[in-house]
Design a protein that fits this description.
The chain has 1 helix and 12 strands; from the N terminus they run E-E-E-E-E-E-E-E-E-E-E-E-H. The two termini are 17 Å apart. The model has no long low-confidence stretch (mean pLDDT 96). A hairpin with a 4-residue loop joins strand 7 and strand 8. The chain is globular. The strands form 3 sheets. It has a 5-stranded antiparallel β-sheet with strand order 1-9-6-11-4, with no helix packed on it. A 5-stranded antiparallel β-sheet has the order 8-7-10-5-12. The protein has a two-stranded antiparallel ribbon with strand order 2-3. With 136 residues, it is mainly β.
């Protein structure tokens, strides 16, 4: 499946602990416009459940673990995030949701644009129509 990749960020350890730094247009492959985070989710909760027309995101599980399920309309892939130096880049036009949250899960999401409700595709059949148009 195209449109996503796992990013392993560099770790800079010393006697004081570990540091990981990310920069836009370097580890994050776009200009950063928005950062938001989720926490205190029940294990079985489902977050996301949509695609974007234009937005790109990088997700990082800063603490705990969760699963991201990505869907291009033909194939589904599950990516587990469980380390704070591991990010998941997701392009536009991929359906996504995340679930299977550990009790201590904290996820930060780094986005290429500000929140625009019209960029969200929340109907799966509409998403499939957009994907079919992309393939033409």
């Amino acid at each position: 499946m195209k449109g996503y990749k796992v990013i392993n960020f560099d770790i800079h350890p010393d006697e004081r602990g570990k540091l990981t730094a990310v920069s836009e247009m370097q580890e994050i492959p776009f200009e950063i416009k928005r950062i938001y985070y989720t926490w205190d989710m029940p294990k079985e909760a489902i977050r996301g459940g949509h695609a974007h027309k234009n937005l790109e995101e990088v997700m990082v599980c800063l603490h705990g673990s969760c699963d991201f399920v990505l869907d291009d309309g033909k194939e589904k892939v599950t990516v587990t995030l469980d380390k704070p130096n591991k990010g998941l880049y997701v392009s536009a036009h991929l359906w996504r949701h995340f679930t299977n949250f550990s009790s201590d899960c904290v996820v930060i999401l780094i986005a290429s644009d500000y929140f625009h409700p019209e960029d969200h595709v929340k109907d799966y059949n509409e998403f499939l129509q957009i994907r079919a148009t992309d393939a033409e």
